[in-house]
Design a protein that fits this description.
By secondary structure, this protein is an alpha+beta fold. The chain has 14 helices and eight strands. The structure holds iron/sulfur cluster (2 copies). The site of one iron/sulfur cluster has 12 residues, from loops.
């Protein structure tokens, strides 16, 4: 028996479709998916698909709707990790487990399908060692009974498969978010527990770009943060620039990784109000402007979906 087969035989979860050995990009898989295969669409009928911020930007543009509308109509929030990190999943078609975008002809958003759909049947495993400040990618092969692509006569490496599926771009643009998630997962927020407002801010700045843009246009933001005009001009029209700015803001609020200067008078006004000129608590500085804002998905949170 090969070492790989021994790993599979010894799996602590023998019924799991994920082959429990980590693979590198040069590992060879046998797989092909095409329209004439007898399982066509089977993988889209029982979905559990987490979306990345970049997935949402691509899909809302494809559909010509705002991120807020997209989140309401096509997704449901959930929490993952020990620190209750806010995530977003596809919401299936009402009363079914099928994807809302599957049709008899296949995926109706194929060119903009999310990262997880592109990767299938590969699972991306992002890990981070405690002594390192970057994530490492490895892969796992998912073999499920309904998927017959594993019996097709084609072999290729995982890296070749990733290239074929357009995943370099998705991985690149999803990396800051994955690193942030790994950081929250492994360490939690640096400044105490995240308040409900901060959690909502995390959700908005990661997933709801159109609402986040309204936030950075608000008076509360303008009176608190000193953002140069060039950056403002960019983030007001460019979702990717805004996503990157949101990552900086989250890191500033949660980890005091200060990269966005505060308005001098805003800090003084705030400290004077507190009567505590020694405090440099960044989270509090951010909260007044966040609290003034109507945060997203209140209704969904109350419904307890996860
Ligand atoms: S987005 Fe497309 S590929 Fe992904 S589950 Fe839905 S129909 Fe299938
Ligand atoms: S081969 Fe697998 S990925 Fe392709 S349609 Fe069938 S179930 Fe889906």
């Amino acid at each position: 028996m090969s070492d790989d087969n021994k790993l599979i035989e010894d799996s602590p979860v023998p019924d799991s479709p994920v082959v429990p050995n980590q693979l590198e990009g040069d590992a060879v898989i046998q797989f092909r998916c095409h329209k004439d295969i007898d399982c066509f669409n089977a993988c889209c009928m029982n979905i559990d698909i987490m979306l990345t911020p970049y997935d949402i930007i691509r899909l809302k543009k494809r559909l010509g709707i705002t991120s807020t509308e997209f989140l309401r109509q096509y997704t449901e929030p959930f929490e993952f990790g020990k620190n209750s990190i806010a995530g977003v999943k596809y919401k299936p078609k009402e009363g079914t487990t099928a994807c809302q975008f599957v049709t008899d002809e296949g995926c109706s958003v194929y060119e903009d399908r999310p990262t997880a759909c592109r990767y299938y049947p590969i699972g991306l495993l992002s890990t981070r060692r405690q002594d390192e400040n970057f994530d490492r990618a490895s892969y796992a092969l998912v073999t499920e009974d309904h998927c017959h692509g594993h019996f097709e006569d084609r072999k290729l490496t995982i890296d070749e498969y990733r290239g074929e599926q357009g995943l370099e771009e998705y991985d690149e643009l999803g990396r800051p978010w994955r690193q942030l998630i790994l950081k929250v997962k492994s360490a939690g927020p640096a400044i105490g527990n995240m308040s409900k407002t901060s959690l909502k801010f995390f959700f908005m700045a990661c997933y709801d770009m159109d609402r986040f843009r309204e936030f950075v246009k608000s008076e509360g933001f303008a009176s608190t943060y000193d953002v140069d005009q060039e950056t403002m001009d960019k983030i007001l029209v460019d979702d990717l620039a805004l996503l990157e700015f949101g990552d900086r803001m989250i890191r500033q609020i949660m980890y005091a990784e200060e990269s966005i200067p505060f308005k001098k008078d805003a800090l003084e006004t705030h400290l004077a109000r507190r009567g505590d000129r020694k405090s440099t608590e960044h989270d509090d500085m951010a909260r007044p402007s966040m609290a003034a804002y109507d945060m997203p998905l209140d209704g969904d949170e109350e419904s307890g979906k996860s």
